[in-house]
Amino acid sequence: MERASFADVLRHLRESRSLTQEELAERAGVTVKAVGALERGERLRPYPHTVRSLADALELREAERARLVASVPSRGSGTVTDAGSAASTSSFPASTFSFPAPILGRTWEIDLVSGLLREPGRHVVTLTGPGGVGKTRLALEVASRMTADFPAGVTVVGLAAVRDPGTVLAHIAAALGVPESASDGTVARLAPYLLGRRVLLVLDNLEQVLRCAPVVAELVSFCPDLVVLATSRAALRIRAEREVVLAPLNVPDQGVTDLDEVAASSAVALFRDRAEAAGATIEWTDRNAAAVAAICRRLDGLPLALELGAAQARLLTPPALLARLDERRRESGPRDLPDRQRTITAALDWSHDLLELDEQRLFARLAVFTGGFSLASVEAVTDEDVLPSLGALVEQSLVLRTEAEDEPRFRLLEPVRQYAAERSQSSGVATATADRHASHFHDVATSARGAQRGPDIVETIDRLETDHANLRSAYLRLIETDRFDEAAELAGSLWLYLGLRGHAREGLTWLDRLDENALGDAARCQARIGRAGLLFVTGEIAPMRGYAEEALALARNVGPESLRSEAAILAGHAAVFTADVEEAGRLLDEGLAAADSAGDPWAHAHALVGRGQLALTIGDLAAADAALTSAVSAARALGNAFTLATSLTRLATVTGLRGDDRATADLLGESTDLSVAARMSWTLSYSLPALAGVAVRLGHADNAARLFGAAASLSATHAVDPRFPVSAALTASDLTMVREQLGEEHFRRAWDAGRTAARDEIAELARAIRRLARG
User: Fold this and answer.
1) End-to-end CA distance of the chain
2) 236 near 128, Cβ under 8 Å?
3) CA 296 to CA 268: how far, in whole Å?
4) How confident is the model over 33-61, as a mean pLDDT?
5) How far apart are CA 725 and CA 656, in angstroms?
């Protein structure tokens, strides 16, 4: 049976709605002439943009829309498909798939990549293409639509800031939420966590770490159910790979003058959409349409170049924009780069040339920032009032403003940042700007040391986390320029933030880069304290004690008293954990005396926590109760969320040993609420297993297993390892009891549910246990 033509189907659907051609044209935003030509069969293959507009205007049901799309004849090797179908609901965080604008002109590519990922035996699909072509955007769009195809999850690993191929496996492991021991550089350690699980792994921005290709190949060979979707400017060149070259958007052919045909081009559609978003109103006349078509052809349909050009449409008419392009050389980039990459360089060149001199100077210096920046940081690095120039860069879409709760933040898209870095080098400001950037973030880190120990800890570590990438690059710059004392001060000042927010292992690698022989005594003391603190987080108590005692010896000579108290308290905690009772008491007494001498309430409270733990270790519940009750009071007076959460959890050990489930649940519930709200994984790793013990005693083994699973997930993803012997012994006993009560299959289901629970779910589960304990 012959298939109905597009003309017949369109006319039937229009008439079924009792619409005239004029009414349909007005609703669809096309001309009456275009509708007539389509219904007469004079235009056999309408563009997808036109088909979608007509379908939306007719308010077609799903079956009718499918019929209209199916009636469109093939266009070359591709077919017209429906670009208007909704994406599947994503299981990702909102920030991952919160797209600022719809993806345009990529229906065929989305269908192709989705189909490849669904093929049996398909292991690696790599999207390649020039910078700015939209590889990341397409990969995330595909991933958002494929959550149902991968029941074990879809995980995105952003690698744009990664430069060492040897760390790619660690980033994959961290994103998947597996223990850090599995990311020690060997696939064999990671593979067991993926075997038998249908997972889609999106590896975004691989071009600078292509030497990780053998690792990717080995990983998919070990894990037959794993599928990798990668984005890169170059292919991995491994046997398991299928490369999909992402071409620029289609542009109108030279000589095309029909307004509807020009508008149907996906490049034109993107340009118009972004121009309107920037506040421009482009009257769709023959002259403007011809100019827009020429702009899109000149820019080769590259999405980033089109967006940059569209941002100027608020100030310049399309013919004026085209004239600006005509003034540029066709090959403004190095001749050994691909043509499209030279074209995007040209697009950035002319965007850059629209800036005033002070704006160009600021743009070049912004390349020093990694992962975004605040206005205050820009002003500190430049020592200038940059607000007018920064506003102009935002207007020109060279700088993007991102949402933040406390202050506006900004960032450069990676291709734009690379271009700005070239400008920075060529103008001779790169070295001086990098040095000022390093000095500024050294100051940020050292000034945050005291704030982390006061009532503003949560706001402080939130700010540090937003600038984590800048702190890292500043640290590396200090190392690179042999400013080792400043590097030690930066890392040593941040150990508490790094430990609380899951960066303990990274902090230890920072400290590994220090040239110990080049450090002064005060800087060496800070580095030793930082390393001891981070080892405390990761549960490596023996080396922690050694570093803490070395720091203490230095602090006794160089001061100040606050360093001596912190070193003594860390050493005292390590001695408690290793059951060296006499030495623990002596060290904690020294730490408490130094804290009081320095007027340091934070150290005072943690010295009391150490004394309480020491009393628990020797079985003196009365002394433990007294010390830990005092610690809780001191923490409340201080207002530090970490100190209070820690004190509450330790006091709960006392009430738990006494069999007071209600008091224990209240203490642990408050600690958990504090930790969840502040995103402090270290304190959660103690409170959740203890709360699970309460659930066991109350007869709620299923909830206990969920809490144990949540705690295990924290330990795996944040490199936290709670090792206080009394707590560890109680946890081991409670965990055995839960397994016995539930049976292995039920226990595993509940455990897995806890591992994937969101923070709010964990907090609600803790509150439920509190309610049960109160009767």
Assistant:
1) 73
2) no
3) 7
4) 79
5) 15
Find out whether 377 and 467 touch, Cβ atoms under 8 Å: yes
pTM above threshold 0.85: no
Distance CA 462, CA 464 (A): 5
| Arithmetic mean of pLDDT, 478-507 | 95
The pLDDT score that the predictor gives to residue 609 is 97
Contacts of 658 (CB under 8 A, 6+ apart): 621
- In this structure, the number of other CB atoms found within 10 A of the CB of residue 154 comes to 24
Neighbours of 764 (CB within 10 A): 12
- Checking phi first, is residue 73 left (phi over 0); if not, alpha (psi -120 to 50) or beta? beta
Q: How far apart are CA 448 and CA 450, in angstroms?
A: 6
Q: Residue 102: name the closest of 264, 270, 314, 296 by CA.
A: 270
pLDDT in the model for residue 216: 92
User: Could you tell me how many residues make up the chain?
Assistant: 775
Tokens of 149: 């195809």
Give per-residue pLDDT as tens, 716-732: 777 677 777 787 788 88
pLDDT at 18: 82
Q: Do the Cβ atoms of 651 and 658 come closer than 8 Å? A: no
What percentage of residues in the chain have a pLDDT greater than 70?
Answer: 90
Is there a contact between 441 and 470 (Cβ–Cβ < 8 Å)? Answer: yes
Can you tell me the distance from the alpha carbon of 736 to that of 747, in angstroms, rounded to the nearest whole number? 11
DSSP state letter for 250: P
* Nearest Cα to Cα of residue 728 among 692, 699, 700, 689: 689
Q: Give per-residue pLDDT as tens, 174-190.
A: 788 776 555 555 787 78
Residue type, 226: L
